[in-house]
Amino acid sequence: MFANKFTAIVTALVAAAATVSAAPGIVFSPPVTSPTAGQVWTIGSTQTVTWDTTNIPAANANQTGLILLGFIEDGSDDEHLDTQNPLAVNFPITAGSVSVEVPDVTPRDDYVVVLFGDSGNTSPQFTITN
After folding, report:
1. Within 13 A of 66's CA, how many CA atoms are on the CB side?
2. Above 80 in pLDDT, residue 62?
3. Assuming Cys at both sites, which of 50, 76, 78, 91 could form a disulfide with 97, CB separation 3.0 to 4.6 Å?
4. Distance between CA atoms of 103 and 120, rounded to whole angstroms?
5. Is the distance from CB of 46 to CB of 100 less than 8 angstroms?
6. What is the gyration radius of the CA atoms in the chain, in angstroms?
7. pLDDT tens digits for 79-128?
């Protein structure tokens, strides 16, 4: 799973031409607090992805983030991250939230968002519907 996240970071950065800045030597992995397990998003709606910012090290204060949409099928560790179409890029990791537009994707109930700063943190599974 770590290899998948690492590959997704590198691919997303190139594909989105986004810079995810990180403080050298300090790993900050803020937990995603929304979407929550079982939450339902509707295609075309605007939703807010949130994360916990209470333990941000001072060295990470100017860090930017990247949010990708993916899904996890039963029995798989692969997050199937959509690295070609990030939900959000270059936002301050200290913000604790960012609004995203729900893309026109196949409805399913095993979607996740992954927040990347200098490491990836995955939300619980949620649903996207028409």
Report:
1. 28
2. yes
3. 50
4. 21
5. yes
6. 14
7. 999 999 999 999 999 999 999 999 999 999 999 999 998 677 999 999 99
